[in-house]
Amino acid sequence: MFYYLPLYIFDSFSLSNLLGCAIIVLIGYFIYKFNIYPLYLSPLCKIPGPPVKNFFYGNVRVFEDSELGERLVNWEKQYGSLFRIHGFLNRTFIVTTDPKVVQNIMTTHAYDYRKSRQLPQLTDTIGEGLLLAEGNVHHRQRKMMNPAFSFANTKEIVPIVVRISHQLKEIIMNQIGDKKEERITINSLISKATLDIIGLVGFNYELNSLTTKSELAEAYDEITNTNKSYWDVLIILLSGYFPFVRKIPITSNIRFMNAIKTVGKISENLVKERKNKIAKGELKGNDLLTLIIKLNEDLSKDEKMTDDEIKYQIMTFLAAGHHTTSQSLSWSLYFLSKHPEIQDRLREELVQAFPDPNFQTTFDEIEHLKYLDSVIKEILRFIPPVSLLSRISTKDEVVNGYFIPKGSMFGISINTIHHKSSTWGEDANEFNPSRWLDPEIKSKVTNYTYLPFNTGQRSCIGIKLAIAEFKIILAVLIRNFIFKEVEGHKITTVYGVVTRPVPDIDLFVSKIGV
Question: Which sequence ranges are marked TM in the entry (predicted)?
């Protein structure tokens, strides 16, 4: 009887039955992994947090009813400085605004928390460069590149930023022409200007995005495209769990991967061309790429970066070096248009400092403008470039009395930290640059209560360059133009990899004195 058992089973338990059982098992596993365990059995369930209202989206559905920033601020008030939320497929995020926890994650034990790869399109866009490198690799890359971002080198690139800023000014002047004012979509112009700047200061490469069609600019337009359909967004979310989804040959995936290939190809060619010219003694530049290649040549074999690593640094500089600055500049013009009294006060300071509208400036001159500095700091507080930093723990630990198992996802809510009334006063939810002139407020600002550029070992290596670029472009624009909001043009804040406006920002722009 035993000898015929397999045949008996096959006869009575058909292939369709086996398939049905397999499907039931898979569904059961899916329900357990993405619903029962994270919502009811995980140790993280002991951490307080808002209720989950959707099987697939966790608390994400809530974000569609109200902006994420406001919702996180409210949850922090309700549940405290450490609380739990659920993302797509109920992935648990431990959100924190506690300065001590932030210090532990970002500084004290920074390399015990790795960056999340939940958004593989970010890895595709910037490669395994400084922004995503981990542990000893990150430490080695950062140590090698630090000299390239010194104050001395930052001061030397200021004339390039000034030139491109005035080029942007002339393009806006021409768009206005003889009219009293012109409605201009500001994001695109500023993005092209910052891309041209990073091309020159980063690689001594004339992209000319402001004046001509640029293959690189078009590639980044596709990568950062905000007009995504529901299915495009779903593919992005699914690819964080199932990377093969990005390989499905549908139109959006094909466009995205072609754009990534363009960025990678241009970056690779830049490295090859620059190394050849340096080897032949044909190039003596102070752009970041040249400095990095020269610094790399002086290192031991174990410390040197490979050509691929250098290529990834270029991809990182191109993406992080222009996109975050352009978004912050666009936001600054938007809020200055909504607060004309602040815009007027800033313009008064700029006119006094630079009577000539075609002014040239130095790093030291622009750094001494106190109200400009306050406006820049306030926009970076009010709308931080990155609203939520994610980290994954690599060890079991206890945080604020809660057991946190290895592999848990932390979310440092920078936007919430930047809107705490205990630090910023009762008007924390208002755009008010004058707070930065208040000694009492300034005394409360630390690396863990104000972190627009991150903090600790993973802080932005190009912070000095980014702030100088931000100040110069904004100074040139406010010195030469008046920006007014377009009534009825509603802007929504979208919290993604970078905090961005949707739709693009349209403003009425007029020339000074016209």
Answer: 12-32
Strand 92-96 to strand 82-86: parallel, antiparallel, or no bridges (unpaired)?
A: antiparallel
What are the structure tokens assigned to 433, written together? 């640059």
3-state SS record for 216-250: HHHHHHHHCCCCCCHHHHHHHHHHCCCHHHHHCCC
Q: What is the CB-side half-sphere exposure of residue 216 using CA atoms within 13 A? A: 28
Output the 3-class SS for 461-511. Answer: CCHHHHHHHHHHHHHHHHHHEEEEECCCCCCEEEECCCEEEECCCEEEEEE
241 φ/ψ angles, rounded to the nearest 5 degrees: -105, -35
As a whole number of angstroms, the distance between CA 2 and CA 70 comes to 67
- d(Cα 488, Cα 486) in Å, to the nearest integer? 6
Rounded Cα distance, 371 and 341, in Å: 13
Contact 373, 442 (CB under 8 A): no
User: Could you give the angle at the alpha carbon of 319 between the alpha carbons of 290 and 174, nearest 5°?
Assistant: 95
Q: How far is CA 183 from CA 190, 212, 485, 486, 508, in A?
A: 15, 21, 9, 8, 4
| 381-411 tens-digit pLDDT | 999 998 989 899 999 999 999 999 999 999 9
Pick from 125, 35, 165: which is nearest to 320 by CA? 125
- DSSP secondary structure letters along 375-421: HHHHHHHHS-SSSEEEEEESS-EEETTEEE-TTPEEEEEHHHHTT-H
Evaluate whether 180 touches 514 at the Cβ level (below 8 Å). Answer: yes
Please write the tens of the pLDDT for every residue from 341-391.
999 999 999 999 999 999 999 999 999 999 999 999 999 999 999 898 989
Question: What is the CATH number assigned to the segment(s) 91-511?
Answer: 1.10.630.10
* Ranges of each domain in the chain: 91-511
User: How do residues 24-45 score in pLDDT, each as one tens digit?
Assistant: 988 898 888 888 899 899 999 9
Distant-in-sequence, close-in-space partners of 502: CB < 8 Å, separation ≥ 6: 226, 491, 492, 493, 494
Cα-Cα-Cα-Cα torsion 376, 330, 325, 219, nearest 10 degrees, comes to 180
Rounded Cα gap, residues 128 and 152, in angstroms: 28
Is 21 flagged in the annotation as binding? Answer: no
Q: Is 316 exposed, middle or buried (0-12, 13-18, 19+ CB in 10 A)?
A: buried
Identify the three-state secondary structure at position 184: strand
